[in-house]
Amino acid sequence: MNNQSILGNSKAACFVCVTDRARAKAFYGETLGFTLKHEDGFATVFDSNGTTLRVSPAKDFRPQPFTVLGWEVQEIKVAVKALTVAGIEFVRFPGLSQDELGIWSPAPGIFVAWFKDPDGNLLSVAQH
Length: 128
Known about the structure:
Blueprint: H1 4-7, E1 13-18, H2 21-31, E2 35-39, E3 44-48, E4 51-57, E5 67-72, H3 76-85, E6 90-91, E7 104-107, E8 110-116, E9 122-127
Parallel strand pairs: 1-4, 5-9
Antiparallel strand pairs: 2-3, 3-4, 6-8, 7-8, 8-9
């Protein structure tokens, strides 16, 4: 059996842990603009352009130092400017030559910028 066929036709879901569920609900729903699908005792669930995003509270949560969730956008400068207007601050990393918007280009035609949710989860927008 070809292993790629087992889940190759299935939709992926994303999971993000947070400490403050209400604050995360406002951030992902209002600030980022995702549609609330439902809430239950375990998670606040959003639709991210057809991908399920489960935002789950975790008592002893500590954010990771790497990107945990990202979105591919058509025009990164437009996305970064809109997110900035919405109150998002972009992260700058020492040693990376990021432009005035915080966008880094590791290779021609590839662009990425990072920001954090209220719990410190590192998120990104990228254009390829």
